[in-house]
Automatic annotation (TrEMBL):
Gene3D superfamilies: 3.40.50.2300, lambda repressor-like DNA-binding domains. It comes from Paracoccus versutus. It comes from the Bacteria. PANTHER family: ALANINE RACEMASE, LACI-RELATED TRANSCRIPTIONAL REPRESSOR. GO terms for molecular function: DNA-binding transcription factor activity; transcription cis-regulatory region binding. Residues 12-66 form the HTH lacI-type domain. CDD domains: HTH_LacI, PBP1_AglR-like. This is LacI family transcriptional regulator. SUPFAM superfamilies: lambda repressor-like DNA-binding domains, Periplasmic binding protein-like I. InterPro entries: HTH_LacI, Lambda_DNA-bd_dom_sf, Peripla_BP/Lac1_sug-bd_dom, Peripla_BP_I. Keywords: DNA-binding, Transcription, Transcription regulation. Transmembrane segments: none annotated.
Length: 348
């Protein structure tokens, strides 16, 4: 008997399903992705019709129907993929989880030198519906560039620019202020700070928090004790060895990452020093995969906040913006991590 649906089983498109049900293509698309804005009964009705008719998704056609590519872009420096010790994987994991849940695709766009060209190309080519950028500078030109293109975007961190934009950040000023104040409370005054490069806004905020804590106790800041470095274990070893060789070495060290702290522990052991007795060490960025402050010997005092959750919020805010679920005002979220006191801090 002749089949009254000649395209059945041969990959019919979204429009045929929409026409069959008397719905718009955008409604059918959202229903097939189990979007919460579509009633459960409608989602079930669409799913049954699509199965019965042999619907085969066509990403390009769906994108044209709803006016979106259903893809977001993440732009990052190529060297971050080559780092063994980085929180980038945690951020990427959180972003990827949400992208998968919401039925989007993630376009990873690494760059070597000219990030502005990559951003401009993605923003104007309609390859993606929105963009995520990371590690903003103190005065970051990328934010104005993206704002001028009109593409939705969100920043992992903040910048001191004079235009509104959406971001997800942690209170970096408060992190170093609290860590420094803790050490001051334990009687330390020769406190070193291992920080990232202050061209990055988060590092500048941490430096300001450290100085604020020292100033509040009328303690001078020795420039020899404040070092800018990459956030790796090997850099922690090198920086700590340099600090411990000073005529008047520090009695405590603040580390901008848990990886740096691991290097400081190694350098202290090589110098015959016992952490918590001869040298106090505190750090930021616990809760990264593959490394835990509680597993250090002695256990490391550290701030604790999920970087993976920050990745989730970046993707959620961006996709909500793309889908028109947010108003015109930008969304800014700043988290304050917990500080867990462990055995790596001793009294002076």
């Amino acid at each position: 008997m002749a089949n009254d649906r000649p395209n059945q089983g041969q990959g019919i498109g979204l429009k045929a399903v929409a026409d069959e049900l008397g719905l718009s293509q955008s409604t059918v698309s959202r229903a097939l992705r189990n979007h919460p804005s579509i009633p459960a009964a409608t989602r079930e009705r669409v799913a049954q019709a699509a199965k019965r008719m042999g619907y085969a998704p066509n990403a390009r056609a769906r994108g044209l129907a709803i006016g979106r590519t259903e893809a977001i872009g993440l732009v990052f420096p190529l060297e971050r993929l080559r780092l063994v010790q980085t929180n980038f994987v945690d951020v990427l994991s959180g972003i990827s989880d949400v992208v998968t849940e919401r039925g989007y695709n993630l376009l990873l766009s690494p760059f070597r030198d000219d990030e502005a060209s990559v951003l401009r190309r993605l923003a104007t080519s309609r390859m993606v519906d929105g963009l995520i950028i990371t590690r903003p500078l103190v005065h970051d030109p990328r934010i104005r560039l993206l704002a001028d293109t009109g593409i939705p975007f969100v920043v992992h961190g903040r910048s001191d620019v004079d235009i509104p934009y959406s971001y997800v950040d942690v209170d970096n000023f408060e992190i170093f202020r609290r860590l420094a104040e803790l050490l001051l409370d334990y009687g330390h005054t020769r406190i070193a700070a291992l920080n990232s490069y202050r061209r990055f806004r988060y590092a500048a905020a941490r430096a300001a928090g450290y100085r604020a804590a020292m100033d509040s106790r009328r303690q001078p800041v020795d420039p020899d004790l404040v070092l800018e470095t990459a956030m790796t274990e090997e850099d922690g070893v090198a920086c700590a060895a340099r600090l411990l060789s000073l005529p008047e070495p520090p009695t405590a060290i603040i580390c901008g990452s848990i990886f740096l702290a691991k290097g400081v522990y190694r350098a202290a052991a090589e110098a015959g020093l016992q952490i918590g007795r001869d040298l106090s060490v505190v750090a930021h960025d616990d809760q990264l995969r593959g490394i835990s402050a509680a597993d250090f010997v002695p256990a490391l005092t550290a701030t604790q906040l999920s970087v993976e959750m920050a990745g989730r919020r970046l993707a959620e805010i961006l996709i909500d913006r793309i889908e028109g679920k947010l108003g015109d005002d930008p969304v800014g979220e700043v988290s304050r991590p917990d500080l867990i006191l462990r055995e790596s801090v001793g009294r002076r």
